[in-house]
Amino acid sequence: METLxxxxxGLFQLLGVSFFFKQPExxxxxxxxxxxxLFLLATLCFLCDMNLYPRHYMHMAKHWQLIFEIxxxxxxxxxxxxxxxxxxxxxxxxxxxxxxxxxxxSDCIPWRLExxxxxxxxxxxxxxxxxxxxxxxxTIYIGNNFLGRLKRNWNEFWRILNGIYRxxxxxxxxxxRACKMATYPRRNNRxxxxxxEDDEDVEEEEDDY
Length: 209
Hints:
Elements: H1 3-14, H2 34-48, H3 62-103, H4 109-112, H5 114-136, H6 139-166, H7 169-183, H8 199-208
Helix pairs in contact: 1-2, 1-3, 2-3, 2-5, 3-5
């Protein structure tokens, strides 16, 4: 899918705007929302690696593909976050709460940290899914290559700046002049004269007259 379509679908979900499924009144569970954000990020990464637009329609205008992918992306994001993740998060929340009930009393220390334990449990589940999606879509490999190129460009830029800093004023002027000459080559301002006709052609024209 196009990056713009995925970003629009994710923006609608972040703003709480839904078209196909009803948004929950409060939240899927009382747990922190960091797990929901990680799951939404995993869903968007998965959609970026998908091709939903049929190949038979590739000859049509680009805006038709954009409209189709936005509608499909909004639908898939809503069904994954509002249906799938809400149920998963609620199950994880209930399981964690029952586990705390069985391990501690109401006045024990873990109950004071229940909110953060709930956030940790849901974040672990959604984080594991996000890691799997990143590995499956080669996003980590692409990100490492991008960071490597960025690091090499930065090192080269820093070496150039360091070399310029060590130059004196005359060397800097010569380097700047050479850079301008290489970037903006001199134009040949000589006007091209029209080709002269041969004498033979002129004599033939006079004979014709």
